[in-house]
Amino acid sequence: MRKIVSNLGRGLARGSSAAALTAALLAAAPATAQTAPEAEDDAASQDDSIVITGSRIVRDGFEQPTPTTVIGEDELRLGQRQNLAQVLNDSPSFRPTATPQVLVGNTGSGTAPVDLRGLGPNRTLTLVNKRRFVGNNNLNYVPMGIVERVEVVTGGASAAWGSDAVAGVANIILKDRVSGITVGGVSGISSRGDGARYGGDITAGTSFADGRGQIMFSAEYVKDESIPDRNSRDRLGSAGIVRLNPTSTTDLRQVLVPDVNYGNQTPGGLITTGVLAGQMFNSDGSLSTYGAGTSLNANPAIRFPAQVLGGANAVGLYDVIAVTTPVERISTYGRATYDFGAVKLWADVTYGRSRSTYAFLPDIGLGAQTISASNPFLSQSIRTTLANAGETSFTLGRLYTGPYSLIYDGTRTQKEGAVGVNIDLGGTWKASAHFSHGEVDQAQRIRNARIVSRFNNAINAVSSGGQIVCGINADANAGNDDAACRPLNLFGLNAASPEALAYIRGTQQNDTTTKLDAAAVEVQGDLFSLWAGPVTVVLGAEGRWEEQRSVSGALDLAGAFGPLNLYGSPVSGGYDVQEGFGEIAFPLFNAEGTAKVDLNGAARYSDYSRSGGIWSWKGGATANLFDSLLLRGTRSRDIRAPTITELFSSRAINVGPLVDRDTNGRAAANPAYNPTPATVTTFSGGNPDLVPEISHTTTLGATFSPKFLPGFNLSVDFYDIKIDGAISTLSGSNLTLACRNGNAAACGRITRDATGTVTEVRSNSQNIAVFETSGFDIEASYVFPMSGIANIPGTLRVRALATHVRDFVIDTGVSRVDTAGDVGAGTGNAIPSWRGTLSFVYQNDTLGLDARVRYVGAGKFNSQLDQSVNPTGYLVNNDIGAYAYLDLGARAKVMDRLTLSLNVNNVLDQKPPLSPVGPVFYDAVGTYFSLGARMKF
To answer: Which of 49, 616, 689, 920 has the fewest Cβ atoms surrounding its Cβ within 10 A?
Structure first.
């Protein structure tokens, strides 16, 4: 079939326009118009390949109307990415929502989901060999060595595959047969000597019983180390959006600047009141003068504002948060098949384990402390100074990092088995069935967490009997004694004793097991033949049973860890669904070599145990003209059922910037009010009354594969997606807008400090939002032998891929925001207007070379802070220019069985735009080198 299904990877439609993409590729055409016959054979073999994901109908000559992109062998190798999710994130239709550089300071560390269209990972259905797997969309569980290709359906596909296929489907196709043993190893390091990565893999297989049976196995181990020092990279430290002229009552403009720090705390402790105000504690408990920054407060008389610019001793939150999260993982896969002739049996087994452990946040749940002037941990000279001034206490501001930092330790273990059968029923009729059972065990720990009551006991240190003890053990009330209490020295970064730290610290813990049982059966065949060809149908049924059980520790359930008590509400729940589906391919017209028109339709009825029955459907058509031009279009109704997490989720936390949209009168009431706080704590939870989302998707497109230019393919597809009743938790910014519009429930979910600045927001999942997005996907590829332009062996593959997002609208019923073209780190739902890649892959018998350009188009940091939206308080440096990254790779077969490889990503060490949090679309690591070796036996 004449479609773009070649095993090539991402490509680039130059960031400015689709025309530039097409022109760039066509420019090479004249020199290679006289293509050698062997290239024609290669192109033809690619055209004859059958994509199986866009439809359940698999039949030679059937052209699916749903756009599908294939990520093949070349793309799986390009960039030498650490997992399959990172490979897909390089494709412009995917938003890199959850990556190691984005998940810092987040309990999602160690996961690897993908997010098609930026509509959320839970709206992208991921399959393995056309079936669901437990831990859906965590691609850390899939060993790369066994992956043959990934088929990406960039359109709604719920009628074919069920819930979650709203944005599309990523179907991971594994190798069907393996002969021999392949062993590989890889090692990587950044140009700054950090972010080390090393790993290895093995894939083995053999046939037996004269080839009727096949056994194969694949295993992969990867360890990625964290990059802990954020200030080792430019533009990644504690940046923030601040007032351009903080003291002005009329100039409300804002600016994004680096080095925005706390002005009222230091890691060792800062005295902010009394005679010693402005003195900070050194490591030995002595004092030195605090090197303050420039105040960003509206009132310059406030000596210790919440934010300052610069400062010799001032630090910010993102000075102590890592650049990337670490992960250590192992993934294994085994498969056995036996072909009896008309019946083929198969069995799969998988095991995966990943662990991520690192210091992910300081103890941000603790404010300033009032310290007694007689605290015995204070030096005699300090106590004397306070006494002479007649002061009985002072205020201590401290950033609780170092020994007080929270340590995230998350381990996820996946186990799954599946059995199935494929049956040839005779003629064109075939049947298949499978059953799978899988479990994911997730053990999450927050180590070094502060137990509030014990901390309060320990900081009240007094002298008694010549020793420093806890005040509760020295007062007259014996009922409050705690023999385990050890007094805590807060005066200096590492002043606390190990005994005191052991007393105040505990481990937050949660153990969750998710189970998935899935069964499916389907039958396919030709009902009858018409004037244009056979009418083919697929009929089938599916069932899924999903449950989750969660257990938290006694201290977590008691709320002992205060505002950062993450696991106080463990999740347990489940649901099941039974489905029936059907699909038909109806040939309408067929004039051999001139025109061919096919219709395609599918429908599915899903009966959910919690919300009842719901339909999804799809209708589509294709018109193939002169075996060169294929026109295609679809209209579908797709669904996404709420997940167990959304239905019953435990309390989750995220810390990041927020744009307050309820600002009227606040600055006038309190000059210290901050409309763009950088460290807002957001909590979210689930809702058991949620119902499935309903999406309607339209795609219209064309592919062009001219006979006069063998090996060349071009496709352009328009997409339009609208999701009604989308499950949304409302972003913090939208909550403030809802409150401004008079929504009392939204107001009740927002906490402000004495200045009116937002410090915390609490959200709840609801079927209240409408998501709308539309745009174009553009793909072009050209494969030709180098002998066509010079006496050089081998072939050159050129592939370009681009996505243009026209609009990306989030409508919560109280706000309607279009974020298409937003690219700022920390900007909710940001997605570039243009994103693309352009790759060149040369290969001969012994040498392979590749080059790739990854492109992110120009955009706004945050369109809501643009002058056209906010004419008085706009962001003056809101524009971010286009970015391009160059990756280079080489492979050499040095022996018949040994291949060595070298890869360099971000060759030019392109730095990201100024980023208050982990950048989503831009490289935060810098130039990265990796070496690999692969041996076949």
So the answer is: 689
Is residue 254 helix, strand or coil? strand
Residue with tokens 């062993």: 183
Predicted local distance difference test score (pLDDT) of residue 811:
86
Token pair listed for 105: 């300071």
C-alpha distances (whole Å) from 937 to each of 187, 217, 608, 673 are 22, 15, 50, 68
Taking residue 59's Cβ as centre, other Cβ atoms within 10 Å add up to 16
* DSSP-derived secondary structure letter, 427: T
Backbone angles phi, psi at 570, to 5 degrees: -65, 150
Are residues 434 and 423 in contact, defined by beta-carbon separation less than 8 angstroms? no
Residue 394 CB partners (closer than 8 Å, separation 6+): 271, 272, 273, 274, 276, 277, 370, 371, 373, 386
| Largest Cα–Cα separation, the chain | 105
Q: How far is residue 773's CA from residue 752's CA, in Å, rounded to a whole number?
A: 33
Write out pLDDT tens, residues 427-467: 999 999 999 999 999 999 999 999 999 999 999 999 998 99
What's the half-sphere exposure (Cβ side, CA atoms, 13 Å) at 353? 4
Overall average pLDDT of the 756-781 stretch: 90
Rg (CA), the chain: 30
| CA 154/CA 93 separation, integer angstroms | 8
Please state the three-class secondary structure of 178-210 as a single string: CCEEEEEEEEEEECCCCCCEEEEEEEEEEEECC
CB count in 10 Å sphere of residue 456: 16
Q: How far is C-alpha 504 from the geometric centre of its chain's CA atoms?
A: 34
Mean pLDDT of 103-119: 90
Q: How far apart are CA 473 and CA 755, in angstroms?
A: 38
Q: Which amino acid is at 635?
A: R
